[in-house]
Amino acid sequence: MCIGALAVAALLGFRSDSPAIGHAPTTDTPAIILEGAAADAAAIQRFYRARTHRPFWTDAAADMFRRMLANAGEDGLDPESFSAAITATRQKGMDREILLTQALLDYVRALRTPSESNRVFYVDAGLAPQTSADTLLRATADPPSATAYLAQVQQMHPLYERLRKALGDYRRTGINPTRLPNPDYEQALLINMDRLRALPADPGLRYILVNSASAKLIMVENGQSVAEMPVIVGRKQHQTPSLAGLIRFSVRNPYWNLPPDLIQARAARIASDGPALLEQERLELLSGWGDDARILQANEVDWPAVAAGTAKLRVRQLPGPDNMMGAVKFMLPNRLGIYLHDTPAKQNFARKDRLLSSGCVRVADAERLYTWLMHGKAMGAVNATELRVPLPEPVPVYILYLTAFPDGGSVVLQNDGYGRDPSRRS
């Protein structure tokens, strides 16, 4: 949110008639609360106090920032929203200093945060874009100059930058490597750039990217893809959410806890045909989810009530080769219950349409992924005992919905199976 320089200056205690921001603040700071901007104003106040009110914005930095804001459309942002700051870059003294510092916060947030329609659920807060005013202003202390900081601000994840280049190429030359009409191609680039804002410019040495649109997993190390594999993601009615979290441990030989809809379906069959299904599918009944839950016998359960959804029951499948979780699941504990896991149904990975799960991500080569996460340690055989295995270090996984994906110097369209792209809706 851009706010007026004089209003912010009043809140910070700078005199409105001061020729430069280096002047000392007054002692009678008005108690002004600016809606939606108080936290920023307080952070800006701390920032300049720490600098003993020395200016941050040199003429060179202000001119560079003016060009960045004027060209904000290259990132799908609206330059008009920064019009006051663009004008202020040609001013001097306090007005320019305060307006540009606030505009810098607004610009970085807009550049690095997906819009609400492309919201990402961050399991671990440290993976989310760091957009607090204090954090952003503190980062200005590291580069050698304001212009160096501005250059750093514009750096984005390599996938984003490749789509940004494709957008620029299209707008300059009309290059469109896809089957989409030109306006729709531009819109596809913009919406996927917005989704890619969720990835940090520097995602670290090792991370996993799952593209739920293409149903593919990529293992990245030192900025390079070291392996790819098909995955199975959620059906359209049980869409895999966009999220980011740290895989902290794996579970070998896991139980599979059936979701409520499958429990009801099996309960209806048992109510009709008897409990033989429990032995056939190696299912175990429990009284609850706590540590004190006890194993139930089939005759202790009101099966019609469970089938109707009026009674609750925990059902899990025992570990083993036929377990729906396969040999291992990769855990990033989260309230959505989303994780990556193996599956015995390997034939499904050959399908073109791999929207088949209830939301979790099934991986084609769990052993390869496990070995990579464990720095070369093999997974070993499946047995009947569930075992938690911590990773040597947590590894980020980003699950995003990317329907336009960079491929070399081109862009490849992915299936819009969830119907999230406005330009591709029939």
From TrEMBL:
<keyword id="KW-0961">Cell wall biogenesis/degradation</keyword>
<keyword id="KW-0573">Peptidoglycan synthesis</keyword>
<keyword id="KW-0133">Cell shape</keyword>
<dbReference type="Pfam" id="PF20142">
    <property type="entry name" value="Scaffold"/>
</dbReference>
<feature type="active site" description="Proton donor/acceptor">
    <location>
        <position position="341"/>
    </location>
</feature>
<feature type="domain" description="L,D-TPase catalytic">
    <location>
        <begin position="206"/>
        <end position="382"/>
    </location>
</feature>
<feature type="active site" description="Nucleophile">
    <location>
        <position position="360"/>
    </location>
</feature>
<comment type="similarity">
    <text>Belongs to the YkuD family.</text>
</comment>
<dbReference type="InterPro" id="IPR038063">
    <property type="entry name" value="Transpep_catalytic_dom"/>
</dbReference>
<keyword id="KW-0808">Transferase</keyword>
<dbReference type="InterPro" id="IPR045380">
    <property type="entry name" value="LD_TPept_scaffold_dom"/>
</dbReference>
<dbReference type="InterPro" id="IPR005490">
    <property type="entry name" value="LD_TPept_cat_dom"/>
</dbReference>
<dbReference type="InterPro" id="IPR052905">
    <property type="entry name" value="LD-transpeptidase_YkuD-like"/>
</dbReference>
<dbReference type="Pfam" id="PF03734">
    <property type="entry name" value="YkuD"/>
</dbReference>
<protein>
    <submittedName>
        <fullName>L,D-transpeptidase family protein</fullName>
    </submittedName>
</protein>
<comment type="pathway">
    <text>Cell wall biogenesis; peptidoglycan biosynthesis.</text>
</comment>
